[in-house]
Amino acid sequence: MDLTIDQLAQRTGTTSRNIRAYQERGLLPPPRLVGRTGHYDEGHVARLHHIARLTERGFSLAAIRELFQAWERGYGLADLLGFEEALDASWRQEAARVFTREELATEFDVDDDSLEGSVALGLVVPRDDGYVVPSARVLYAARELRSAGLPVEALLTEGAQLFTDLARIAQRWVALFLDEVWAPYVAAGMPPDDLPRITESLRRLPPLALATIEPLFARIMENAVAEAAAEALAIAPTVTSE
Q1: Which of the chain's ends, N or C, has fewer CB atoms near its CB within 10 Å?
Q2: Residue 32: pLDDT above 60?
Q3: CA gap 2, 42 in Å, rounded
Q4: Is 5 in contact with 16 (CB distance < 8 Å)?
Q5: pLDDT for the residue numbered 87
Q6: How far, in Å, CA of 236 to CA of 242, rounded?
Q7: So where are the chain's domains?
Q8: Cα separation, 228 vs 144, whole angstroms
Q9: Per-residue confidence band for 184, with pLDDT thresholds at 50, 70 and 90
Q10: How far is the C-alpha of 118 from the C-alpha of 105, rounded, in Å?
Q11: CATH for 5-88, among 3.40.50.620, 1.10.10.10, 3.40.50.410, 1.10.1660.10?
Q12: In degrees rounded to 5, what are phi and psi of residue 238?
């Protein structure tokens, strides 16, 4: 995807002036020129996200430049940007959307209590012009669960526990990648020729992890429902006709 400098600034939450300054300081590769217009891509997006994270952690721009230059000397700019892009890639399968308070109520049946709980869980993020919803699918599902008879309080409590459980699952997948892919790469001296292979492995991890989890969870859920139904029927009072 080609981006102009203004589009890149909007996409990454910075300014065109900062982007030009990063280029002048050697932190950001120059754009691809078509005529007199510079075209940026996802590699530039990833690099700007990394610059922002490093500055938030207290790194100076000079230190960040030295870090990037060291990587580029060993790996080459194209391979390094490809790895950064894979590292920065979102696992989300849908784009975040912005809603007004009224739209949240109409679209998702969000009242004051559920809004407060949703904000606490990060399902809804307030901002000056409304509310950012990272995943509308989650709020649609919550609306349907409420219509099925589950109270808001129970859903919010379960949501908090679900975040904890899913965090542990995510950590195991990351540990699997680090132990089985990254650690051998480091042990081999991080050969530059292997970086594209590592990058491809990192790109494939999110969709393959999701593709593995979804059918397994469906099977486990099916078994759990069947067991619960059997127990419920076993203790249900017998109804006799007169």
Answers
A1: C
A2: yes
A3: 8
A4: yes
A5: 65
A6: 19
A7: 5-88, 92-150, 152-237
A8: 21
A9: very high
A10: 13
A11: 1.10.1660.10
A12: -75, 130
- Residue 37's beta-bridge partner residues? 34
pTM of the model: 0.62
Q: Taking phi first (over 0 means left), then psi (-120 to 50 degrees means alpha), and beta for anything else, what does residue 11 get?
A: alpha
What distance in Å separates the CA atoms of residue 97 and residue 181, rounded to the nearest whole number? 35
State pLDDT tens for residues 185-196: 888 888 888 888
Whether 219 has a pLDDT exceeding 80, the answer reads yes
pLDDT: is 152 or 78 the higher one?
152
The order of strands in the sheet holding 125-127 is 97-99, 130-133, 125-127
Classify strands 97-99 and 37-39 as parallel, antiparallel or unpaired: unpaired
CB 108 within 8 A of CB 140: yes
Q: What is the pLDDT of residues 162-178, one digit of tens each?
A: 999 999 998 999 899 98
The CA distance from 136 to 122, in Å, is: 12
